[in-house]
Queue: 3 jobs
Job 1
Amino acid sequence: MIIGVPKEIKNNESRVAVTPAGAKEMVKRGHQVFIQQSAGSASGFADAEYEAAGATLLPTIGDVYACSEMIVKVKEPIAEEYPLVRPEQLLFTYFHFASDRELTQAMTDSGAICLAYETVTGHGTLPLLVPMSEVAGRMAVQEGARFLEKPQGGKGRLLGGVPGVKPARVLIIGGGVVGSNAALIAAGMGADVVIADISLPRLRQLDETMPRNVKTLFASAYNMEKELSRSDLVIGAVLVPGAKAPKLVTRDNLRRMKRGTVIVDVAIDQGGCFETSHPTTHSEPTYEVDGIIHYCVANIPGAVPQTSTLALTNATLPYALALADGWEDACRRSPGLADGLNIVRGKVTCRPVAEAFGLPYEPWDKA
């Protein structure tokens, strides 16, 4: 198969979807690999490394799309890429369709096959979402701590406090991969941490494994309102696979919070779990509503591309190799990989995406 790896052009997205090691493995399996020039430079991979691995460099993103049967990316195509996508072309990347009607319509119109990292399943997990969720959870605390500083608009609290001064209070909504990683970092920085979730089995598990300065809380409306009013940093870490994130914190809740509190909405690429959230970028990461600082960057791991690229490609490469040998056969052999098929030849094949926009759903093998 002819595999293309374009340079990411989303705002401040510096990751690359295939490393030189990955390209070498693809070439060894008999595939042709085309990489856009400088696609890997921000992640620490020079063009010469790709050439040494057997890949061919192309000058423009249009060249890559034009010659490739399979496009491997990190983030969803943006508007200027829509016309480049061809019928029957396989796109393997993060899509998060349920929060973006325009993207959903464009990919449906394209006639392409869109296989989304975030809905691939395996052994009860989302194996291609986990590595970036780990990075995003850890970075959520790092960025939250930064924007709690007074020069950044925050209330001026040090996350870990000092002797004689209480540490900041961190509320994490959602006890999954993002939430547990955020809790570990916040606890390590000395904060007073609360993880809220509606799953009692998960709360029991977290209670047994987390450091002593992490407490668990059942996420009832009453408990959430009380906890929001006394938190300094709130991290939204809720995920409904393939679907739009539920709005768990309303604007009315914001009015109960102290001015200068920071909220980090890690769920923003799925629409966000705060009513007042809208996507931001690394170049303009925050805005203020009712005195509350909102950090809603939709590609948080893109700020640390050297770490993120390696973590992501460690997980995606085996799937990319399987797809390159024939995506239909690969999906028939692996139901978990088939779960990643969101749009196939103009049909929506992921039920949560169809439900998000009131579109017809069709199983992928009938599309």
Note: The longest helix spans residues 305-324.
Job 2
Amino acid sequence: MPRYSIIIPVFNRPDEIDELLTSLMKQSFSDFEVVLVEDGSSKTCQNIAGYYSKQLNLRYFFKENEGQGYARNYGYQRAKGEIFIVFDSDCLIPPNYLQEINSYLELHQVDAFGGPDAALDSFTPIQRAISHTMTSFLTTGGIRGSKNQIGPYHPRSFNMGITKKVFQKTGGYRIPFMGEDLEFSIRIINAGFKTVLIPNAFVYHKRRTNLIQFYKQINYFGRARINLTRFHSGHLKILHLFPLIFVIGFISVLVLSLLNQSLGFLGIQFYIIYLSLIFTEALIKLKSFKAALYIPLTTLIQMSGYAVGLIHEGVQKFRGIDPNKKYVDLY
């Protein structure tokens, strides 16, 4: 039996799967299988799976469309390994990823783990800007893959590992989408399992390829944060409200500038300084002026998309509308 089972749910993204499987062929550690779960796609990757099954220990399954959480459960149920690892289909895996995981687990007893996400230099300037915006301390507070995170680490499903025992005790994902990974992570921790971030076990996360897709995705994340409160109270903190505060403040400053130009200008200066800091940070870290130029725009999209998502799902929750009953095409 393989030591690791890599579970990959996919929905209408055969090109991404092609790239992901190519990266898995380059792993320096080879004791693993791939469980590819097609979640009711109309544009399948069956032919691609057939090609790579000659070069990888790969099994392909097709199931009815229910959402990524249930697709991962489907893969867990069929996995043969001791440790299950989930990737999103838009990830690329560095050659030493599994070796880093295995070396860490040989020295530490943990039940669930995750790693950060990063961007390749070959990504487009927009993709690199989006990746930086999603991981910068100045925008997210460092809650995504930060070594200095306060409290227990909550693995995210783009790069998440669990032992078979964790799945057997928790039953896996409780909801199919919209915060399903955080809901699962919270139950893993509440069940007494130990979680950890493995800093060197990063993946290259392509995320969305244009700004419209990015807005839709980040809007979904805002909705997911509210959906999480349907299951776990106390997981909506002031940090999660920062985008909403940012947007309300920005609109207020614009209105104020129409009523009092001096006061409005002071408020606008604050936002200019803030965006300039993020731009400078991106320029230093990305070493790409073209990618850094997108940072003010991607930051505004991130803040507004998340804020609108919070408001939208907050209203839905107030009205008693539950999105977890059936699959919806969120983005």
Note: The chain is about 50% helix and 15% strand.
Job 3
Amino acid sequence: MPTDDLPETFHVTTDEQLRAVSNLTRHRIMAVLRFEPATITQIAQRVGLAKGSSSYHVRLLERAGLVKVVRTRKVRGVTERYYAMAARSIELPDPGPGQPDMLLRNAVADLEASPVDGERHVRMAHLRLTEEQFAQLGAELQALADEYQELSDPSLPDVSLAFALFRPAPREQADGDSK
């Protein structure tokens, strides 16, 4: 299925949709479907699930509108369904105060599950930026991610990129600390 037919963004707006994308297994299923349609059997193999579990999670994603059937074919009298993402990207609502950021939580879980002996580039930097520099860096990071997403080839191995540019909550000074 050509991705040209897909809407650019799917906005998660309901509790059902948020629950669907918050689950790590469903997050990994959506990663499988990011570049090309797949059957329940193919999804199960790629994610490392039983077919029944894969089917259950895909049905929840389909009910939430996040994935859809894009093609069917008959195989030995059984209708095989190919699922794909409902849009090129999914936009999650900002988490409320004190709530976890599901996107980052899933990214960290994927990083922790990646092969330890595999190549990784992980870095955290603490910066002090003006509002203009902050906005410029955010735009540059987004443009770089978009540029490489356009270069993505489904025949190549998966690579995940996660970044977060944010201003941390002000640190409260501990009792007795001097300025």
Note: The chain is about 40% helix and 15% strand.
